[in-house]
Amino acid sequence: MKKIIIIIAALFVALSITACQSLDVVGTGAITSFTEVAKNLSEPISSDPVNNGWSLAAPGGERFVWSKDFSAKGMSDLMMEFDIQPFLAAGLQPEKLDKNIYLYDKLANKLMVHAELGDTQFKSASSTDPLATFKEIVTAYRTSVNYHEKLDHYNIAFGGGNMFEWAKNLTTNDKDIVFVLNPATLISAGVDPLKVEGWVFAKVEIKNAQGDKELVDKLLKPYNLQ
């Protein structure tokens, strides 16, 4: 009888955990809203064989890339890619970039922010559906996905204050996708954040680890998709 009670209790805990996961408002909302963003892109999400991932391209050419398989060696789990020229014109000295955060492709003239979240091998690695992998990322790395109440955005954190954001509601938000950089490391590499053409240097209100509101510096590249 005691063994039966223990088994029932274990099943109850397992079901409770599953129910909590299915009711996670931020995780569910992040997936639903990202799916809506994908429908409104001028170019569909495409496969990126070079980075073994999927690529979401902004109207200006910037990209958000997520890997099909986080267990793949030598590949970034997440990446944001930009034209480096505006940063060079603003004083960037590429040799001073923090290589744990930034990559510089001189031939392509691209600046990339990359991140490693873990080593999960996704079930959808061979899928032709980019959103299937994205859903697995949100599920497996839920702590890296957040909701920014002030801007009504979801985001996936790269670490170090860098992130990719998308609007919860495209019809009420004029910033549907936003590439977000922490300017501190760029400033250390010679960049004047006020002179990066096409980017907005601004104070953004966030909640810190203690739950208190504070203003932090960000470099923003927003797009309205509608």
Textual characterization of the structure:
- The longest helix has 21 residues, at 2-22.
- The radius of gyration is 19 Å and the shape is globular.
- Strand 7 (145-148) and strand 8 (153-159) form a beta hairpin.
- The chain has helices at residues 2-22, 25-39, 85-89, 130-140, 183-188, and strands at 46-48, 53-57, 63-67, 78-83, 102-105, 110-115, 145-148, 153-159, 162-167, 177-181, 200-207, 213-223.
- It is of the alpha+beta class.
What value does the Rg take, in angstroms? 19 Å
Unreliable spans: 1-23
The residue-averaged pLDDT reads 89
| Shape, per Cα inertia axes | globular
Q: Percent of residues in beta strands?
A: 25-35%
Q: Structural class of the helix and strand makeup?
A: alpha+beta
Tell me about the largest β-sheet.
6 strands, antiparallel
Number of helices: 5
How many individual β-strands?
A: 12
Instruction: Give the CA-CA distance, first to last residue.
Output: 62 Å
Helix content: 25-40%
Order of secondary-structure elements: HHEEEEHEEHEEEEHEE
Neighbour order of strands in the largest sheet: 1-2-3-4-6-5
Give the gist of this structure:
Helix content is 26%, strand content 31%. It is an alpha+beta fold. A hairpin with a 5-residue loop joins strand 2 (53-57) and strand 3 (63-67).
What labels describe this entry?
disordered N terminus; 6-stranded antiparallel beta sheet; 226 residues; alpha+beta
